[in-house]
Amino acid sequence: MNYIIWITSTFVILSTQNCCCFVRTDVDIIGYTKWDGTGGVHTYLYCDDFCITPDQEMEHEQCCACTSKTCWDVAADDPSVKCGVTLLDCVIELTLPTKGVVICNGIDAHVTVTVLYRLQSNNGRLLYLPENICAQSNKLIHIDMSENGLREIDALKCMHNLDYLKLRNNRINHVDNTTFNSMSYLRILDLHGNPILR
């Protein structure tokens, strides 16, 4: 496994090898080049063509590692792009004032695209991760639960398809050494603003 970790930075970019791909996209997108990421794991990434021009100062792989986008992010920026993946939103339904469950709505069964989910619950009162978060682990690829009161994140160990995890400004003070071991696709991790003890 290869890990690139910038501890003093806001973002941590992780990359691993020897994993099976959970989603593959093979569409051509104008202005982007298909890029599989470090180790060939991320078969849904696109690198801005800027990275392959002689004018850019960074080496090609480094440039792509820092600026690549998922096909669904490119499609969100440009609705004319059809990459075969639809990203839908999940919500947290509160069961108690500081606890909740994840609700992800499906789409019509006749739709022939891959459906993935994003969970964003910012500026809330959550002290605990949703109790059913592991039930969503196959399709939930983006979590942003910043600005809550979360202290423990060990329950996220089951989220093996996560691409993006943002937990800024919570109350997390400890991260177990194994918390991210099964997250083979995790590219972006943001724990900025947490009182994590060394």
Can you describe this structure?
This protein is mainly beta and 198 residues long. The chain has one domain (3-190). Helix content is 8%, strand content 26%. It has two helices and eleven strands, in the order ββββαβαββββββ. An eight-stranded mixed beta sheet has the order 1-2-11-10-9-8-6-7, with no helix packed on it. Strands 3-4-5 form a three-stranded antiparallel beta sheet. It is globular and about 50 Å long. The two termini are 23 Å apart. Residues 1-21 have low confidence and may be disordered.
Order of helices and strands: EEEEHEHEEEEEE
- Give the helix/strand class: mainly beta
Distinct helical segment count: 2
Give the number of domains. 1
Order of strands across the widest beta sheet?
1-2-11-10-9-8-6-7
Rg is 17 Å
> What distance separates the N and C termini?
23 Å
> What fraction strand?
25-35%
Largest sheet: 8 strands, mixed
Low-confidence stretches: 1-21
Given the C-alpha coordinates, what overall shape results? globular
Strand tally, please? Answer: 11
Helix proportion of residues, in percent?
A: under 10%
Indicate the mean pLDDT.
Answer: 82
